[in-house]
Each structure stands twice: as C-alpha cells, then as structure tokens.
Fold this protein.
Amino acid sequence: MEIATKKLLLEFMVTTQAKRKRKNIFANLVLSILAILAVSPLVAILGFLISKGIGALSWEFLTSLPAPYGESGGGMGHSIVGTFILVLFASLLGIPVGFGAGIFLAESSKESRFASIVRLCAEMLAGVPSIVVGLFAYFVAVLPFGGFSAFAGGFALSVIMIPVIARTSEEILRLVPVHVREAGLALGLPRWQVVMRIVLRGSRKGLFTAVLLAVARASGETAPLLFTALNSRLWSFSATQPISSLPVQIYTYATSPSEEWHQQAWGGALLLVLLVLGMSLFARFLFSGKKYGT
Amino acid sequence: MEHNGSYSGHNGSYSSHNGHVSLVGHGDNFESQTILESKDLDAWFGSHHVVKSVSLHFFSRTVSAIIGPSGCGKSTFLRCLNRMHEEIPGARAKGVVNFQGKNIYDMFSEPANVRRHIGMVFQKPNPFPAMSIFENVIIGLKLAGVKKGYVLNDIAEACLKQVGLWDEVKDKLSAPGLSLSGGQQQRLCIARALAMAPEVILMDEPTSALDPISTARIEELLVELKKTVSIVIVTHNMQQAARISDTTAFLLSGDLVEFGRTGEIFTNPRKSETERYITGRFG
Ligand SMILES: Nc1ncnc2c1ncn2[C@@H]1O[C@H](COP(=O)(O)OP(=O)(O)OP(=O)(O)O)[C@@H](O)[C@H]1O
Ligand SMILES: [Mg+2]
C-alpha cells in the first residue's frame, strides 16, 4: 500500500473513532436518563407517602378502630389484623398448592406435554387481572356460602399467590445441581424422598423467598377483596364474617368526603407500602446470591 | 461391617449365589465368587449406542478396575450396574445384570432397592448441601426408617472411622459437610455410601478431582474396604488401577476388549489395543 493512502486511511479511522466515541457518550446519556425516569415513580411515591402519611401514623392509628364519622382520631388496627388474617388464609391454601405445582413442574421432564400445559396455565393465571380473580371468587366462594367472608377473601388472594409460588419455586428447584439428586438416588432412596427431604432442604431459603414474594404481592391487592372479604368497621377474627383489610380500608377512606379520613388513607398507604417493600427487600436479601445450598 | 444386619435387615431380598468362576492366568488366590455380572449389556443415550454387549463379572471382596479412553462408555457402563443410567432423560439400557444371581433389570426389581445393595461414589465429591457432616452420613438410614438416635450415632462413628475421617471431624460433626476439604468430602461420601451397608460400591473416578495425598489416602482406604465390600472403580490412572485392583477390564468405544487379573493385563496383555492403551500410545 502506498504511504499516502495508508495515511489517509489512518486519518479516516481516527475521525470515525472520535465520532463513534461521541455517539457512545450520547447514547449512554440518553439511556441513563431513561433509566432514572423508570425508577423515579418509586422515589416520588415514597416521598409523597412519607410527607402525607407520616403525620397520621401513631400508636392510636395502629391499634384502634375507626372513629365515628365526623370525629377525629381512631385508626386502622382492625384492617392491619384483617390483612394478616386474610394473608394467613391465603397462605394456608396457596402455599401447599403453589409448592406442589412448583415441585411437579421442576421434577417433570422438559418434554412432558402435561407439564408444559400446567406451566402455561400458571403463567396465564398470573396475568389474569385481579378484579377478574375477585369476580371469580365471588361466584365460587361468596354466593354458594351466602355472604361475604374472610374465607372468601383468603381464597381470592390464594388464587393470586399460587402462580407466583409455583413459578418461583420451579425456577429455584431447577437450580439444584443434578449431582445432589443423583447422590440421593444412589443411596437407594425413592424419588419422592430425595425431592422432599434432600433437594427441598438445600433450597429452603429460596423457597421461603418465593413465599415472601407471593405474600407481599397478595397483601397489597385490593380488587380481589372488594367482593369477597368486603370490609368491616369492627374487630373480626372470624372466617365466616366480612373482614377489613388495609387496601380496602384505604380505598374506602380515600373515596370518602372526609378530610380526616383522607389523612388516615395516607397513613394506611404508607404502612402498606412499608410492609410490602420490607418483605420484598428481605426476600431479596435472603436470595441475593441465587446460590444453591446456602 | 459391625452394624450389618443389626437394624433393618435389608439383606434378604436377593438369594445368594455361588457362581465360582476361574480366571485365565495366575497370581494371588483371591476368592473367586461372582457377586455382580453383566451379560450382553447394551446402553444408549437416545440413539447413541454407548455400551455394546458387554459381559463382565466382578468378584466378592475385590477391587475391580474399569479402564479405557475418555468417552469409551466407562461411566455409562458403571451406572448401568445399579440402574442409575436410566435416571438420565433419554437414556436406556438392555441386557442382564445379575447381582448375587438375580437380574436387577427384571420386572420385579425396584431401582431404589437395587441401589441399597449397590452404592455409588461419584467423580466430584457431592455431600448434601445444607446438611452437617453427621447428617450426611446417616441421612440415608434415617430416611429409610432408622429412627433410634444411638443406632445412628454408632453407625456414623463406625463409618467415619472406617474411612479414616473420625479423628478429623469428631469435634465438629455438626459443621456443614461442604466445609470439609475436597479429599475429606470424598471420604465423607464414601462413609455415606457405607452407612447403607451395601454389598458393592461403584466408584466413578473417585480421586480424579483430588490432590495426590488425598488420592493416596483413598487408595489405601479402598484396599482396606475390600475386606467387607466389593468395589468396582473406573479410573483414568493406570498406576492406580495397577496398584489397587485385582481385576481390570479394558473398554474401547463401548466394547469390552479385555478382562483379566490386573497383573496379567498390565504385564502380559493378550490384545494389542490393550497394550497400546496401557503403554500410553493412545487414549
Ligand atoms: N448425559 C449424556 N447425554 C448424552 N450423551 C452422553 C451423556 N453422557 C455421556 N454421553 C456420551 O456417551 C459416551 C460415553 O460416555 P461416558 O461418560 O460413559 O464415557 P467415559 O468412558 O466415562 O468417559 P470419561 O473417561 O471422559 O469419563 C460419550 O460419547 C458421551 O458423549
Ligand atoms: Mg466417565
């Protein structure tokens, strides 16, 4: 090659390189801004909730019943307890079924048609709008039993939890190295024992994470509870009576005309978000390494 | 082993069998009672024919080595001997494997039951995660229904002593099994297999992931163990096979090329392929 052409080529490369560099910087900048935009609602929501809701939070708020309309004070104690009871019912139903499905999916072979149908259904169930889940629960758990109840609310929430637990636990169990299963089988243990007593044991933390995520998801749901657990202004510990919950109570207060109740709604919302975020963060902390057996 | 038969007595499900087979050749006079034999054993991964009509026997209280170049089907063959092969999706085996005279592939035979009698140690040490040293040794028995604490304690101690690990771990039995060194983990895995009181233990390159000192310890251990349990070992290490085994089988692309007493195979092989392999000219 001629020296002159070589020089030209070199110059060309240098200028295109500089151009490319500028383009890179620009693209990075744009993407960073978009990324910040994507997470800014979280910051805004938290900031907003804290500024509006922190004033409402008090010992009275956490422990007492709502004050009669027009009077000040009172709290959401019954909704906090209600949310715990609803989530408890939902867990009693949803954890065994969700784990069962997750274990089944993880243990079935990749080619199994039945398993892929189940997996697809779980995915679709996870995508069903929660208001529809509420309607469904209304027809199967409210109408036949003659009324709104905590049980029906728990049932509706369990339908939300099941696909979350099933898919997460399947993924976690698939992380288990083959050699763990083989070591168990080589001891002459039947397959179900190897899975239930050895494989699951190494995945304890991950499975707990799956439950936490599902519980976090369920405890924030409003729509499935609107026509199942309904709401209540009283302490309730009964499975067959309507029961209050944080999301529904927030909804009720927020749509009321009372300024006092708006305040309470903000407090409830802050509490609910702290609860759900706390659980998600804890779950993340537990399962940060995604390593099996720790 | 002292505890053999003292708990669940799971030794009664196979009839004993006295198939005396004499080997061609000479050497020391080890007991020539067949405990395990394959007859026309074939194995596949999908349509890939990996083990081709292999007939081989293994004797009671001996160490039997299986050697051959990488990919020749040693592991696959070994895993057919306790029905672990079929656990891999798409894998299948055909033929007869007699254990104490009974075919483990016949329709009444339970893979889990077969593996109680024919244990396995893997290439990579694989203690159970999230279990202590103690639990690793006794979990098999515990899940098999042995509940009494003192029985489990005794067996754990006996097995850990047998593999020479007791003195190293007796003060930290509740430490995680995975906290041990590689060599210790492998001995823990052998103890775990021994706890089920198997008649045969299959070992797939049990020392290939270990340092020379750990390897030497395991080799000594195997020679000691063969007094009570028969050992079939796959190895890539010719010196190892020569040092510790009584019989050697040489496999080449799924075919059995030669089988005989280890001394014979290494000093006076009958087939030229065997000679070329053991002298390191291919494989
Ligand atoms: N899980 C598997 N799926 C499909 N094919 C396999 C699988 N495992 C082994 N094979 C194939 O079967 C053949 C025999 O493999 P095998 O592991 O028995 O050989 P090997 O003699 O033990 O080799 P090495 O000395 O490397 O361990 C090889 O061709 C291998 O590619
Ligand atoms: Mg191998």
Q: What stands out?
A: The longest strand of chain B covers residues 34-45.
